[in-house]
Design brief:
Layout lengths: L1 E5 L2 E5 L1 H7 L11 H6 L2 E5 L11 E10 L5 E9 L2 H18 L1 H10 L5 H11 L18
Parallel strand pairs: 3-5
Antiparallel strand pairs: 1-2, 1-3, 4-5
Amino acid sequence: MYLKLTNGVPAKYTLGQLRRDNPQTSFPKKIPDALLASYDVYPYTRPTPSEYDSLSWKLVDGNFEQDSVGNWSLSYVLEALPLEQAQSNIRNRRDGLLKDTDWIVIMHTEKGTNIPLEWEVYRQALRDITGQAGFPYEVTWPTKL
């Protein structure tokens, strides 16, 4: 992953773009960093993103930063999905988890026996997700049985 400095402002850039921008130049297959720097092109790294719920959030590019020895990195920023989309995503996952447990309800209904308490508690916790204070951006999922 590379960036190009234009008037001191970094922007994402590819080696393909470098070759297209300089059609009269024959670059080696592996371009040395020193040669890239002569075109104001520098490699950058990305930090490992922290865990997040992709049902409600998405990673977007943050800002380029340069450390004290000149290495570049591009950070991530979490951005909330639109409210309706996040709500729909959470409900769809919740509904799928409920569906995955329907067999226990059917089995006990057919046998005429009580549904085990831990299954009732789990299913109720799933149904209660939409009532959580942080819904849909801060959801605490019950532990799957």
